[in-house]
Design brief:
Helix content: 40-55%
Protein name: Helicase
InterPro entries: Helicase/UvrB_N (IPR006935), Helicase_ATP-bd (IPR014001), Helicase_C-like (IPR001650), P-loop_NTPase (IPR027417), PLD-like_dom (IPR025202), SNF2-like_sf (IPR038718), SNF2/RAD54-like_C (IPR049730)
GO molecular function: ATP binding; DNA binding; helicase activity; hydrolase activity
CATH topology of the largest domain: Endonuclease, Chain A
CATH architecture of the largest domain: 2-Layer Sandwich
Organism: Segatella copri
Keywords: ATP-binding, Helicase, Hydrolase, Nucleotide-binding
Largest sheet: 8 strands, mixed
Structural class: alpha/beta
Strand content: 5-15%
Radius of gyration: 37 Å
């Protein structure tokens, strides 16, 4: 069938039609085109076929309208000539930026420009936005009714896809006509439109080309600075000013932390503000909050989440900076009030910015308050302000965000990142990224536990260091603002600022070891006690054990028959409780003999109370009720049972008879009671306390030495409130000191004012009424005690990073002494062999140092203190290289503004050539996409190596005087090496995008399990009409896939366990599923971005710069 119509099939495309006419038309003189979308690369392919054509005229129309619409400008009728040229120039520059990077492509673009210059090609831009036609005229020199001539019209533009020259083409439909009247009509239309259009001239083309990389060859220095400017972004020229309140110093390093933190907040929706303790995180966070208010507008809502003791600190600071009216403040234990709509709090979606102080307190994802906080942080903003986007901004404040394990850091990241589709460069799937690190850490801790003699501490520290090096470089550096005092003191601009304001940071001296000896009978008692505490009998692991059973905490383990079915995880629960209480008892022994005696008597009492329950045949197991406390208050068992029932507990699930337990359980309780009675008797006879004697000796002869302690102030920490009370009483009675202030959770609020007067160097009204403060860890966070410079750790906290926070109380801005003395009572070897307190603290602290950097040794001389200055051996060791590069860009901005602006304006794909005798036949390529930045070093062997930013800068660093080399000398390998970098990037990113592939899905077992449960629920609903629930399940699946809420996964798993335990009928199961899904949907449903949008953003990178070496 003969037809005038054709599509873009391979042998019948627009290009093939042009080609056929050009080869067969005897007098092909003129080619005229009216198009809405033009690409110079399309013209280049056509040009070879039109080599003999004398006159080529192209008129471009509709893309002008599209371009200006994108720029949010409205035009009615016509556009002025310069606006038309500017619009096409913008389009041309974008085409060059997005075109393929190879020699042939660039040659085609340059040929297009040259043809206009040589007047082989005439091009005009129609100034009306109403030009939508697309037609092509192929004419002889003298077109008449008897000559040849064609007009082609339809959907195709003059581009690769429009002409059908791409491997995969769009569907196009065109018609080719040669009837004279048809051709002549279109010819006259063209001539009329041509006269109305704006011509492109030589000057226009030269200016357009000058805006692309094709007309420029920057110097190596300019390209180096271009990367720095692009990397640090607004930090370089951000000159925001903020009027500081009266009495608050304007400190430059804090000012820069605001700039860096605000940039991360905008880029990643959150970040860690993790400057070491004492550098003013509250001030920095408040300044960032004020800047956000100024950017977002007057309807901004801020939520500050704080530990209870720090409320006044936050409200006072916000009031000082004039932004208190924008904020609400909530204790970290009261987040449920926001979720449940209690009190005067706003809806969770109404907050724009969430600030979480002491964020490490939310490291555990299983806690209910973590789920509440994650819901608040991840629920989209209801009302966008001037800062666009529905994601909330989240600031996590903590000098110790790592705390214990890599898992802790992952949990905190998930407060502002989704598990999948992370915005952190180089990371797509956070759980998959963290999985090997978590496994490695767990393995390390298992091996440490087997090292009974602590012979491998140095090895464990080194391996921990290596592990956290990976975490730091791949994750932490990209979402954390953290500076140590040495960072600050060794940046010249910061040091000058501190000197000018007379701000001094004291030096933290290495820990002073205080080892106490156990002599004679006390040593024997200590050993035998430790054996009883730790040698717990176990039928498999320790069948010959002679120690405590800790039976009081193992009741559910020994339930039998129907009663046992109520506790399917009984063995796990009892094992966990036994371990916790065993560690507690050993820690109490290490804290003080006084505290240990009190714990012994308490343990004996609660054990005997449970034996009495057996005597009355009423054994109460109620985890939600503190039965031990009620018994201690003298409550009868029947009263406790009534209380439990009033609280909604069923008596049959709470009260058990002796026959519900195996006989062995009561025997174990009685054996424990006998052991505890004997221990109480022996320890009640002990009056000596070598640890206390050593402490008092040091207090009388060293701690108040003026050479060490010029202010005469002393801070003493203990984990045990009993030990705090014991030490206070001993010092008052034996040394007759009445200047001792004891502080714990129960009296902190009442003693806050006098504490500040006596120990806070920033407090206006000073007092010396108290010179010694003995405190529990209630003062380890958020207070200033820096009139003191000597700190005593009477015992070691189980949470090792608490040690850092303790020292941070005296090591703060405005500290009065130039040295900080840190005394440690190290655990005795006996205790350390059981709980590994010393080595456990060491390995956890090493993990923190390695990940975040710290100023000094905190716990042990064996610590490897890596401050991660990321130093170059050629410069001062302690200078932070990131800050150094930032300062270099800032210096250019301050001193050579014109050069800075020209470098900043360098186009994408800028390149240069170097001939310096290093790195021959290699290329550095900097690639960027909205979610990923990579630096590749492609060497002569053809391998594309991804390298860190700092390494790339070492290679690219150049002096201002260096001239660029000859680009012609590298053309034989330059394009190929850039292509290799692009291919490597795409390969890596596709692997990451395919993190949703089967391979990575297998790694994320927890997500797979939850998705499987949801799909099982869906199948269970097939037999009923539950369209609403099915739709809800589909949405929840999407939320689980993205990894938005950890609590959602936990709730689904919990429901699944409950169903398996209850084994309901099919009808009941459907009802339970509908109710549960409705509940979960109500709690966790949020709007989501589409996968398509995310994939488009990360798959194709832009070439920012490239640099080849001759």
């Amino acid at each position: 069938m003969s037809t005038k119509f054709f599509t873009n099939t391979p042998d019948n495309s627009l290009f093939e039609k042009f080609k056929g006419i050009a080869h067969n038309m005897l007098d092909f003189h003129t080619f005229q085109a009216v198009v809405g979308y033009f690409r110079s690369l399309g013209y280049f392919k056509l040009r070879e076929e039109f080599e003999q054509v004398k006159k080529i005229q192209i008129l471009v129309g509709i893309n002008i309208d599209n371009l200006f619409r994108k720029q949010s400008k409205l035009f009615f009728g016509q556009i002025d000539e310069q606006a038309v040229i500017d619009a096409y120039s913008h389009d041309f520059v974008e085409e060059v930026k997005n075109a393929g990077y190879d020699e042939q492509t660039e040659r085609g673009i340059l040929q297009f420009c040259q043809d206009i210059i040589d007047k082989k090609l005439e091009m005009r831009i129609h100034r009306s936005k109403n030009l939508h036609a697309k037609f092509y005229l192929l004419l002889p020199e003298n077109h008449n009714p008897n000559s040849d001539g064609w007009v082609i019209m339809g959907s195709s533009n003059l581009s690769d896809s429009g002409m059908g020259t791409m491997p995969s083409n769009r569907y196009e439909l065109n018609v080719a006509m040669k009837d004279y009247d048809d051709v002549e009509y279109c010819k006259q239309e063209f001539e009329q439109l041509w006269e109305q259009a704006v011509p492109l001239n030589l000057q226009d083309i030269e200016q357009m080309k000058a805006k692309t990389h094709l007309a420029q060859l920057p110097t190596p220095y300019e390209l180096y600075m271009k990367v720095l400017i692009d990397t640090f972004g607004s930090q370089v020229e951000d000159d925001f000013t903020m009027e500081m309140p009266e009495g608050v110093k304007d400190i430059r390093y804090q000012h820069d932390a605001v700039i860096q933190g605000y940039q991360m907040l905008m880029q990643h929706n959150g970040f860690f503000l993790a400057d070491v303790v004492g550098l003013g995180k509250t001030i920095v966070a408040t300044m960032i909050a004020k800047r956000f208010v100024e950017a977002n507008g007057r309807y901004t809502n801020i939520l500050v989440v704080y530990p209870p003791a720090l409320e006044k600190n936050w409200t006072d600071t916000f009031k000082l900076f004039g932004i208190k009216r924008y904020a609400q403040f909530v204790s970290n234990g009261s987040l449920n009030k926001i979720i449940e709509g209690e009190g005067n709090f706003r809806e969770k979606g109404e907050y724009d910015l969430v600030i979480v102080d002491e964020a490490h307190n939310f490291r555990g994802a299983t806690a209910g308050r973590y789920d509440d906080l994650q819901l608040i942080c991840k629920t989209p903003r209801i009302n966008e302000g001037l800062v666009k986007g529905h994601h909330k901004k989240v600031m996590l404040l903590s000098a110790t965000p790592l705390n214990n394990r890599p898992t802790d850091l992952l949990n905190l990241l998930l407060l502002f990142q989704n598990a999948r589709y992370s915005t952190i460069e180089g990371i797509q799937n956070l759980p998959v990224t963290f999985s090997p690190w978590i496994e490695e850490y767990d393995k390390l801790m298992r091996e440490r536990k087997l090292d009974k003699k602590n012979e491998r501490n140095a090895e464990f520290a080194k391996r921990t260091d290596d592990l956290y090096e990976k975490i730091r470089t791949q994750v932490i550096d990209k979402v954390t603002v953290r500076r140590t005092r040495n960072n600050i003191k060794n940046v010249p601009a910061y040091k000058k600022d501190l000197d000018d304001q007379h701000i001094v940071f004291p030096d933290i001296l290495p820990p002073n070891e205080l080892m106490y000896e156990l002599n004679g009978g006390l040593n024997d008692l200590f050993y035998s006690t430790m054996a009883i505490l730790t040698d717990t009998p176990h039928p498999e692991d320790n069948p010959t054990g002679k120690g405590l059973h800790y039976a009081r905490y193992r009741a559910v383990e020994f339930l039998q028959g129907e009663a046992r079915k109520k506790y399917p995880t009984a063995l796990h629960i009892s094992t966990m409780l036994t371990g916790i209480y065993r560690v507690h008892m050993v820690k109490r022994l290490e804290s003080s003999f006084y505290a240990f005696r009190r714990s012994l008597h308490t343990f004996l009492r609660i054990t005997e109370d449970m034996i009495k329950m057996f005597d009355q045949n009423k054994v109460i197991i109620a985890p939600d009720i503190n039965v031990k406390d009620k018994q201690a208050k003298g409550w009868e068992l029947d009263r406790i049972i009534e209380y439990a029932v009033e609280k909604g507990l069923k008596e049959e699930d709470t009260v058990f008879k002796d026959e519900d337990f195996s006989e062995r359980f009561l025997e174990m309780l009685k054996e424990d009671a006998e052991n505890l009675k004997e221990l109480c008797r022996k320890w009640d006879e002990i009056s000596e306390d070598p640890k206390l004697e050593l402490f008092i000796d040091k207090l009388e002869h060293e701690f108040f030495d003026k050479e060490i302690n010029p202010t005469g102030k002393l801070v003493i920490f203990s984990e045990s409130v009993d030990t705090v009370n014991y030490l206070t009483e001993q010092l008052q009675n034996r040394l007759h000191r009445h200047d001792i202030l004891d502080v714990c959770a129960s009296n902190r609020t009442n003693r806050q004012d006098i504490l500040r007067k006596c120990f806070d160097a920033n407090y206006a009204e000073q007092s010396d009424e108290f010179n010694i403060v003995i405190t529990s860890d209630v003062l380890a966070e958020g207070v200033n005690l820096h009139r003191a410079n000597v700190i005593i750790n009477y015992d070691s906290p189980w949470n090792a990073t608490r040690l850092m926070q303790r020292i941070g109380r005296v090591n703060r801005i405005g500290s009065v002494a130039d040295k900080i003395y840190n005394y440690m009572f190290y655990p005795s070897m006996q205790g350390n062999q059981e709980i590994h307190l010393y080595s456990n603290a060491l390995i956890k602290l090493q993990g923190f140092h390695s990940a975040f950097g710290e100023d000094a040794q905190i716990y042990s001389r064996e610590e490897i203190v890596k401050e991660f200055q990321m130093f170059n051996p050629d410069i001062q060791d302690a200078v932070d290289r990131n800050l150094k590069f930032l300062e270099e860009a800032r210096e250019l901005y301050r001193t050579h503004r014109k050069l800075y602006n020209s470098i900043k304006a360098l186009p994408m794909k800028s390149r240069t050539v170097r001939e310096i005798g290093k790195h021959p036949h290699s290329t550095i390529v900097y690639l960027s996409s909205p979610q990923k930045v990579e630096y590749y070093w492609v060497k002569a062997d053809g391998k594309a190596l991804s390298i860190p930013f700092l390494d790339a800068m070492d290679i690219m660093k150049a002096e201002m005087e260096e001239k660029p080399g000859d680009f012609a000398k590298v053309m034989d390998f330059h394009y190929e090496q850039v292509k290799l970098a692009l291919e490597s990037y795409r390969k890596v990113v596709r692997k990451v995008v395919d993190a949703e592939s089967m391979e990575n899905r297998k790694k994320d077992k927890s997500t797979n399990a939850v998705l499987s449960i949801l799909r099982t629920m869906n199948r269970a609903l097939n037999a009923v009409n539950a369209e609403k629930t099915v739709a809800q399940i589909k949405k929840l699946e999407q939320i689980v896939e993205l990894g938005v809420f950890i609590g959602l996964n936990s709730s689904i798993n919990s429901f699944n366990r409950q169903v398996k335990k209850q084994k309901p009928s099919s009808e009941d199961l459907v009802a339970q599923i509908i109710d549960k899904i409705d509940e979960l949907f109500d709690r966790y449903n949020i709007p989501l971005d589409t996968d398509e949008e995310r994939n488009e953003e990360i798959l194709e990178p832009q070439i920012v710069v490239s640099e080849s070496f001759i």
